[in-house]
What does this fold into?
Amino acid sequence: MLRKTRLFTPGPTPILPAAQTAMASFGMHHRTAEFRALFSKFLADLKVFVGTKNDVMVLASSGTGAMEAAVSNLTSSGDKVIVVTAGKFGERWTGLAKAYGCSIDVIDAPYGKTVKPEAVSARVKADTRVVYMQATESSTGARHDVQGIAKAVREKSPNTLLVVDAITGLGTTTFDVDGWGIDMLIGGSQKAVMIPPGLAYVSVSERAWQAMESAKSPRYYFDLRKERKSAANGESAFTPATSLIAAFAAALDYIASQAGGNLAAGREALIANAEMAAAMTRAAATALGLELFAAESPASALTAIVAPKEVDSGVLVKALREKFGAIVANGQGEMKGKMIRIAHLGYYDYLDTIAIIGALEQVLAGIAIPKHSEFGVGLKAAQVVYARGRA
Amino acid sequence: MLRKTRLFTPGPTPILPAAQTAMASFGMHHRTAEFRALFSKFLADLKVFVGTKNDVMVLASSGTGAMEAAVSNLTSSGDKVIVVTAGKFGERWTGLAKAYGCSIDVIDAPYGKTVKPEAVSARVKADTRVVYMQATESSTGARHDVQGIAKAVREKSPNTLLVVDAITGLGTTTFDVDGWGIDMLIGGSQKAVMIPPGLAYVSVSERAWQAMESAKSPRYYFDLRKERKSAANGESAFTPATSLIAAFAAALDYIASQAGGNLAAGREALIANAEMAAAMTRAAATALGLELFAAESPASALTAIVAPKEVDSGVLVKALREKFGAIVANGQGEMKGKMIRIAHLGYYDYLDTIAIIGALEQVLAGIAIPKHSEFGVGLKAAQVVYARGRA
It folds into this structure.
């Protein structure tokens, strides 16, 4: 049969057609009244999408650029910070904090697990400058307890800043940014918002803006104070990635259109969509006798499925790609060969979800391990979840 | 008449149609064999375009990100650096070097002029860590003497690093990167390479790679050593802006196609194209009794034309936009109101050049200052330059 290439990777994700069109046809100069109007509306919409009254800044960089901004803008060399980590992206916080000379207290959990709020509560001190964490750890498929950890931080030390990498979290799980007291929440363009990589965005609380005044780490391109000043005039401090901003604006319009033009409701519908796709996929994997890597607290952004012990997961990844054009992710680092990761964040519908489960059944049958090889078992389990009407 | 919106700004510049198509249809994951093959070929092509045997690294950021990389990767706090400046972008080097705590010796010239190599020669010392400069200063339209300054630096201090912001220089003027000893040469995507903003690129000499080992300024996202390591495997250290890379690759193919598939020759043809458009524009402006802002050493990237003293240049910018859809740049900062800037870098042809000169004649006639208002005078001068066949 024909093989259409389809991304089922937790970033980049499939591009929204309306965003492709917007991107290709956009040729506006960024220092014009037209662009200022577009950019101001986009920033206002983005606050609604993020779900905050705080400022949201946009950077021309991948998500790591915004993570760096959350270190360089908030810390000085020697500052005490806590990194909450249970995967490869948690480890990126450690690398960043180390690059800026912070004194780091790492609170970790094994890959696939999550750090409990009590563990954070026990370690946060009044002089902890920042706590860095992930909302969802896309290397393991786990969802962290942002609300619980935020509560622990707030109770123990009102002035400690909480920074959450929600690059795969935004649009897949609900945050009460202002209510929970998240000082920075970071997103990326190639995730639930259905556009190509190249933009990062970050919400910034008033407490974080104040902290920047005393933070001495060097920064220039990622200096968020510069961005805030420019954003007040509908501009960005440096040349913005205009084609991607046009695509992002089109994507937010699409998300709103899914709930009668209400962007906040559209975001919740997008989250519910990912939750349903994730629940269908988890049910299918379990029915096929496969183990979920992050079973205790699975994210809806993606599902990490442990490969049968008889087979390297690379064999499954390759077969899905070569037979069906379906691109799924392998494990990262030491998890390579042990799992496949299937994305649900962004532009996936019921047909996509059923289709990838069907492809997985075919590939498993090809490997011929009897207990994982019965056609229809995974698909049936997914159908039951869908018909039940809630994730 | 109809008004088609056309950019005549020195970045962003008009987008190549083949790049638009490539950008819109690209949906490849960046950790796949297909992307590694594309990215490796692209990086090899980019070396040819830049004209160097040195590595060329690509960053998902605007050009300022690569400028920051040239400071954070090469310096430690307290290092002595020289900034050669004669415009707004020269001043950006000062801002960056200050952010990283460098001890800065500024060698400046008035806006519109250039710094002479002798001035640099007199100030470079054996302990000067880096000299920062622009190839062309897009705020004034001046072309700096990169060759002369490179020679001055090399003669006075063999180990001093020379970093050239060629964001508007690349594809508009020829550099012998290796022969002159340029340690970093920086480019941006929204300039002569005819694609949207969002990518920066930078060539890195062996001397610069060595200097990074002793440079202590913090860096992570812009750590070029990480990029070099990843590039050896056909990858980028962080998620690349894939749609823009696809567009860039298409643009390099187009540039090569203009010289029978020879990219180096295509680059020279692109430079000659900008030089011809610039020469036509300068001749037209002069014939219309207008003064060139950087008359002593005009860049071919753009032409800065001083507005008649009777009129604020914003009136010309507005009339060109409102009557004809032609977007030209005003002066920046304290030069606002004093000049218009017309771009020649990238995707402009003979018809575009004649057309903008015609529009300028109409707008000047509308202002009715007799000595600048004779129809055909500017166009005729441009025609003569074109017919002569050399800029």
Summary: Chain B touches chain A through 55 residues (CB under 8 Å).
